[in-house]
Amino acid sequence: MPGPLTDPNRPFRAASAPVLLWLLVGQQVRYRIRSFRGQGKLGSSIVVTLFGTYIAFTLFTLGAFLPVFVDSIRGGASVPELVDQHVLPTLVGLFFLRFLLQKTPKMQVESFLHLPFPRWLLVGFFCSASVFSAHNLFPLLFAVPYAVNHLAPVDGALGAALWVGGVVGALLISNFLNLYVRAQLTRYEKAILAGLAGVLAITLADEYLGAGIIGILSSAVFGEMHAFSWIMALSVVAGVVGTGILAGGALLQALRREDPPVVPSAQAGRLHELAERWDLAGHLIWLELRLMWRNRRPRHYLVVSLMFSTVYLIFLLASPGIFDGVALGAVIGLFASGGFALNYGQLMFSWESSYMEGMLARSVDTRTLTRSKTIVLQGSCLVLFIVSLPVFMIFQPDLIPLHVAFLFYNAGITTQVILELATRNRERIDLGRSGGFFNYEGFSAKHWLWFLPTAVPPTVLLVIFRDTPTLAWSLLAGVGLIGLLTTELWTRRHARRVSRRKHRMLSGFAVQS
Amino acid sequence: MIYYEQISKRYDGRTVLQVPQWRAGDGEIIGLVGSNGAGKTTFLRLLLDLIEPSTGEIKIDGQPVSEGNWKSFTGSYLDQRFLIDYLSGDEFLDFIRTIYGLSRPEAENALAPYRTFLPTNGDASKYLRDLSTGNAKKVGITAAMFVSPRLLVLDEPFANLDPPSQLRLKQLLRDMHAATGATMLISSHDLVHVTDLCERITLIDKGKVVKDAPTSDETLEELRVYFADGSDQHAA
Questions:
Q1: Residue B19: strand pairing partners
Q2: So what's the ipTM on this one?
Q3: Do A361 and B83 touch (CB under 8 A)?
Q4: Contact call for A361 and B50, based on CB within 8 A
Q5: Which of A238, A348, A411, B59 could be joined to A381 by an S-S link, Cβ 3.0–4.6 Å?
């Protein structure tokens, strides 16, 4: 009984572009709703919603009542001038956050490539859909009430609308530029990372030397916007269109590229000989090191951690007055030596999801497995401590005790807290396909929420003892030392957890993303 | 050696495997046959403690598999999830050697019979993810066998292998059994190889063991008739 599809004379005909587009919209809406629901985990959904609401409320209030806040900090300053001056520097700062955190649509596009969708349609759609991101929407919660309350009465509705349009345009340029940079990252990894480091250095110099070039540029662009400059408005539109085309083109190219295999180096042989002198834990550490180096995404985590501990740390420590807030000290302390443990460590076990079955079916006991991971994370704290120590010595020697205290804290406590999270991992990461930088495969809401038990206790400690920082640092180091001395007890605990959770872990790892 | 007692596995309320009792003695070579989705792989994954049974218990040498004592004398290869794909074939076999505590010279000796089975022409130094399915599988099967396990568990070992490699593998399995007397549990769709190699056949259909008997001259024909008639009718 031949049906239409089995009729050999029937030519194959794909659906029209509008129909395909409608299918994509439906799929994307369902995907976003699923993501928002946090994969059915009520607790996570509630916390994420509360946190999002808090940020939204803060931004809205700041935008609506900005003169009140400005008055209390800088009495007599012109609010529009101050805002115009800071829009661009803020967006540059947010770009780095976006670069680290915003999803790239490449993987979403790839999952449709085998279907009869034209590539240009897929790329165009997913690039356009990427603009509906929190990175673009949250800033508007400040910009819109600010423009309505404070620009419209002076510059009129049109001036306020143009200014908001300018902010939207700048956000879109930043969005597409990020897509472009990340699509090129696999091809020009070193050049792009060096470029970003260069931009950071220039921003730092601009800030440190007090030139404020970015601020001057910002004042010129956004001051012109609410002064009805159509040329400036058209320039922004051209910027959006240009970066959009650039991002789409780069993504189209990236879809056709295949990554060259990494070739084992001679140094690898020497490290192998070193591992040979150890027991099974040594070989598992050696395996983990090869995992990091031979797969793009873990390698990027390594690079980002090194960048934070050097370039970004210089940016933070060299900025005058940056240490007015105690909380920032905790962030710097945590990330300077614990950045790799925090980033890479939280996805441990998931990194090995494609072969964890083979590991657990063989004679690898969970205690040795978790011990090797603990050593890797603690070792990374020591390495990053040494790498970042010269930065502290040059820019903030007073903070060396904080750096030392956090070395102990990160090695003794942070690594164990992160491993506790890792034993709960049930999301698969396909190392061969998972692309680079922060593509979120393997992440779930719990990974974001885990920041609370990781970062809050040391921050609270520093805040409580803010007047006696030496005591706070001593306490941190002491707690860390206790953690280090009880490493074996922690390892046993993690091993028991892995044994108990392994079936759920394996069943989650078997699910293709 | 292996005991399945009142084993069942359910997913979302649907029973995919139900084995009231099944045993394997020391040194037996047992072939596991059945249609796609019959429950063969679930049968093996339960044995290797990769999934938890809904009811019942599996023991190896009198110890529940959940205790993990069997791992030190068991070699297994079910699918590519048993391979570490960013290692080369040589590196992977070296890693397996360290897990089972073999020295390098011991491993060299143990690997000697497998050299003609393993990928050649420089494929040994390629990453496993860059090998063809068949060649990657050869590495995986070798990794399960060269450590001379007392229990060998293989899922579809002949699939994706070229005919000479299939014959070579069959001979390697025979040689290993003759040398070590290992218990072997091999699931396969290749009725010719499995009846030729195995001394006992367990036929699984719709999650149930429907036949379990020593291999005889008639077994191959009986299985052919069984599958040709449609296993649905038999199960009904």
A1: B7
A2: 0.89
A3: no
A4: yes
A5: A411
